[in-house]
Every structure is written in C-alpha cells, then in structure tokens.
Specification:
Elements (H helix, E strand, L loop, with lengths): L2 H17 L7 E13 L22 E13 L2 E15 L6 H6 L2 E18 L21 E12 L3 E4 L2 E4 L20 E14 L4 E12 L14 H8 L1 H7 L24 E13 L11
Antiparallel strand pairs: 1-2, 1-10, 2-3, 3-4, 4-5, 5-8, 6-7, 8-9, 9-10
C-alpha cells in the first residue's frame, strides 16, 4: 500500500472518530428553571395593549421549571420533548393605562405544557480533551453551541382569581355570559401552543452542559386569562350564577361606569394569548456503553 495513503489514514482516523462522537451521545436528559411572563389582555405596560414583548409587565414575572429528553438526529440537529410547569399571572392594577386600570381584572393560572420541538444549531459545540489540561495533546477550544428552535405543544390552564381571600376558578362562572348567550359555550382549558426561540449551551465536560434559553409560546386560546370579548349583563350573571360570578364579570373601580356595561369591550378577541420565558438549562448526555474485556488468567 502507498505510504502516503497509510499516512493519510493514520491522520484521518482520529479525526473521523472525533467527528462521529456525537453518535455515541445522541440521548440527553435535560432540565431547566427560570421565569415566565404572560402576554394577554390583562395587565401590561402603561399603554394600550400590544400583545407582544412591548406589553411586558416585569412585576408579574413568575417561576418556570421543566424537564425533558433530547435526541440528536444529526450533528447540528436535535428533537426534544418537554414537560413544563409555570405560573402565569395578570393584573390590571399594576398598569397606568386608564381603561385597563379601571377594569381591575386579575388572574393566576398554574399551567402545564407538554411539547416537542426541533432544534437547529448554527454554531456547534467543539469537544476537546476529556480534561482541560493546558498543553494536552488534542486539546481544542470549547465554544458555546447556539441554536434556534420551534415546535408544537399542548397547554393545560385553569385561570383563577381571588375574592374575599379565597381563590375561585373562573371558567365555571361564565364571566362573559357563556351559556347564557344563546349558542355560546364555556371555553376549553386545553389549547395548542407554538413554542419558538433561541438558546445556547456550554459543555462543562463530555457528558454535561449548561446553558440559557429564551422563547415565546403562542397559544390558540384567548381565555388563559378568562378575558376575550365584551361585558355581559352583570345582573343576569348574578341571577344565574350568584354574587361571586357577578363580581368577577365586572370588578371595575367604578370611575367610568359606562365603560363596563353590556356590550362594551372587555377584552380583545383579535389576538390570542401568549407567554414568554427565560430559563437556565442543564443536560446530561447518556453515552453508549462500551464493551470492556477483562484479562483471563
């Protein structure tokens, strides 16, 4: 065999082995914790609602945790399944926008989301020597891995609000006249979502990584905060559902009584609810078991 070919193979084999290392670590267990903020009809910035990041109200930031599993389908592509738990919250009393502040609505929801997402890394992780020993042969600089992601999820929510020190689920109360208006039904507390965003990861060693991820969840429901359309007749709600339902249908401050009468705008059905999140991530790569041979005596 040609000596040059032999030399080439001897040089190339270690590089090929390094390039294929990701195949031995396709599986990862992932976890995350951070914060989330609701983007919907309630609360928001001191301006007319925009239903986007400009409407962020920092005081209503709440915790967010998740766990999941990632499978790398190529060196720069992966799919991930997640289970998220978050508290979403909105409150009109924190905004100086006149209409929403007078409306005085609020909610809190413990929210579960099961989602799957596709990740594309445009700056991939570089792995080097197992130990970060200065001057060690084969040592390479380890960079951040940055990626974009998008997917689909299923969200379970249950908006509640407080009255006289007690929390009440709002959906059964029909605060916008659901089931009292002919042909109307109560909204479902289950909706689809579209998660999307970007992230970055830094390898601590060959098995573990830490990182940061930011993204948005666009949902297909406008009732995560129990608010979407117009005010219904408070007296009719009181007669059908009681004092608590009547209060939550219109807990306004009363400074502008004509703003909350039957048929006036309560929410904005043109935009669906969303929420954003920022989280610190960590992952553990599950390597394939290597066969070990023992000496025979």
């Amino acid at each position: 065999m040609n000596k040059k070919l032999i030399l080439f193979l001897l040089c190339a084999l270690p590089l090929l082995s390094l390039a294929q290392r990701w195949k031995k670590q396709r599986h990862e267990l992932v976890g995350a914790f951070g914060a989330t903020n609701f983007l919907g009809d309630l609360g928001g910035a001191n301006r007319e609602g925009t239903h986007f990041v400009r409407d962020l109200d920092f005081i209503l930031t709440r915790p967010f945790v998740s766990g999941g599993y990632r499978y790398r389908i190529a060196e720069n592509m992966a799919v991930k399944s997640n289970l998220h738990w978050a508290i979403l919250s909105g409150n009109d009393k924190f905004t100086k926008e006149q209409f929403r502040n007078n409306r005085n609505l609020s909610f809190r929801s413990f929210t579960w989301e099961l989602s799957s997402q596709f990740e594309y890394s445009f700056l991939k992780e570089k792995q080097g020597h197992r130990y970060k020993i200065k001057g060690a042969k084969g040592l390479k600089k380890i960079n951040f891995e940055t990626y974009l992601f998008a997917g689909i999820g299923l969200v379970r929510f249950n908006p509640k609000a407080k009255y006289n020190g007690k929390w009440y689920a709002l959906q059964p109360l029909g605060t916008e006249g659901q089931e009292l208006i002919p042909g109307s039904k109560k909204y479902k507390r289950l909706t689809l979502s579209i998660p999307m965003g970007f992230g970055m990861r830094y390898p601590i060693n060959r098995e573990m990584t830490i990182g940061f991820e930011y993204g948005l969840r666009y949902t297909f429901s406008d009732y995560i905060d129990d608010v979407s359309t117009d005010y219904y007749d408070r007296t009719a709600i009181q007669a059908a559902r009681g004092d608590v339902a009547a209060y939550f249908s219109d807990p306004s401050l009363g400074e502008h009584p004509n703003w909350t009468i039957l048929g006036e705008q309560r929410g904005d059905p043109k935009y669906k609810d969303a929420y954003m999140f920022a989280q610190f991530t960590f992952a553990y790569k599950i390597s394939k078991n290597r066969r070990r041979t023992r000496a025979k005596f």
